[in-house]
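Before a colleague's protein record goes any further, I have to sign it off. Alongside the sequence sits a line of tokens, each denoting a local backbone shape. I want your independent view on whether this chain really folds as the tokens say. Where you disagree with what is written, explain briefly why. This is what I was given:
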Amino acid sequence: MPPEHRILIVDDEPSVRWLLAIAFDRQGIESDVAESGKEAVALLTRTRCRYCCVVLDLNIPPPDGIEVAKFIHQQCRDLPVVVVSGRSDLAERLKSAEFGSVVRRIVMKPVDTSSLVRYVHSEHCIREGPAENPQ
């Protein structure tokens, strides 16, 4: 699968990670999964941010989702992020942050997977060509 059709799913809940991975796989979008901010940053660094999209929970083991969004903003610039959160207070903090520009959508839990998959599969996240590392 070309990198422009691979997403990164970051959530500390195994059932959520795998539910989302299966939902995307059924639509032909492969995924990598991470359970912590540390693991997400390592995957983003190793792949040189070559994902079409990141589906990111904010309440994850350190660094938290807000710090991961900041990393994406600084290192991956144009990589779209869809935030999935069960905490509206964290989502509000992200909206007010200067690096919130990478966040394309905020989805509150419980997630409607079919709607999320359609959104990611639309022009909002899937790119025509591979993402380029801006560094």
